[in-house]
């Protein structure tokens, strides 16, 4: 089920502090069909965050090919009108409530660069306060396939820009057909040497997902291994247990990757940790995706972290994932623990991005972390290796607070 039907956010959160580097626009003037070019406001391995303007005010929106409908933060509900009739509501969870959709005020326009989109709805509304606390910035919402589907959308992770075209004569890269299911794009890829499957191409997720039964099949052949465990938080629904797995080989469009990481889930998806290796061009009208090798294509995955992924859940800093054999695992920390203090700093008085930086700053030493489990406080001591990165999913030397949008 795609995200906007699930409306999740997994703003599941790996830790990331939003980095906004200086922007140098490449020269695209005069290119056939180019509508606009905008800066990516997040790190390459994060979800795609861009600036959007509504009624003269600027907001940060995630560009999410894994969401059928766009989403507004609850404070934007002032621009929403009546509920969409019940028989048009989207199912959020198979056994639970439906997610409300809203129409919007007539003439509401969302501007991304020079591209102006007249949003008629329906849209979702979500409370992003916990996500904002984790990220350290304020989300305006998500721009989904209702916004993206009419354009050729090129994501240049190297130059950190997204380009929108009405059409594009010569698209660079290897062409792969896109299958559109429930308004969202899917592509054929291969686990290992001979296990093909359809994958949701999900720019709203940092880490992709793999069906659990596929993982069990691959692990029996030693083509995949469990490297961690945790859960995926889901707005509007219960948190869902997940296993973090590492694949020996994975290929898409003839391009092969080794030692990639995935969440186990009920669906397959490609996230930003895979897509950032390419210049990716979605030709939605032409039902195709083009992949061209980028600068990160041969990058070696950097898993030299403390193995501790945190996010904010129901107002508490929560351990989402612990890597097997990591400093966090050896210290006795488990997924689901609530962080009370890091060193002597109360979790309520800091942010997860600062916590992540504190881990990186303790490289080669020890760091105390107090967690709450079953109502009791437990003090743990992590031995931090000299090569700790501060984040398992960013380039060495840079820390960030990532916002995966993986969902069910």
What does this structure look like?
The protein is mainly β and 408 residues long. It is 10% helix and 41% strand. The chain has seven helices and 31 strands. The C terminus is likely disordered.
Rg: 21 Å
N-end to C-end Cα span: 6 Å
Largest sheet: 10 strands, mixed
* Shape summary: globular
Structural class: mainly beta
Q: Point out poorly predicted stretches.
A: 4-30, 89-97, 390-408
Number of helices: 7
The amount of beta strand, in percent, is 35-45%
Number of strands: 31
Kindly state the percentage of residues in helix. Answer: 10-25%
Q: Please state the average pLDDT score.
A: 78
Give the SSE layout.
Layout: H1 3-6, E1 34-39, E2 48-54, E3 57-63, E4 71-73, E5 80-83, E6 90-91, E7 98-99, E8 102-104, E9 109-112, E10 115-118, E11 124-126, H2 129-135, E12 139-143, H3 145-148, E13 152-156, E14 161-165, E15 174-177, E16 179-181, E17 184-191, E18 195-201, E19 209-211, H4 212-220, E20 224-232, E21 240-252, E22 255-265, E23 269-270, H5 272-275, E24 278-283, E25 288-293, E26 308-313, E27 316-323, H6 327-330, E28 338-342, E29 345-346, H7 352-361, E30 366-373, E31 376-383
Parallel strand pairs: 3-12, 4-11, 18-23, 19-22
Antiparallel strand pairs: 1-14, 2-3, 2-9, 4-12, 5-8, 6-7, 9-10, 13-14, 13-24, 15-25, 16-17, 17-18, 17-21, 20-21, 20-27, 21-22, 24-25, 26-27, 28-29, 28-30, 30-31
Distinctive features:
10-stranded mixed beta sheet, mainly beta, 408 residues, disordered C terminus, 7 helices
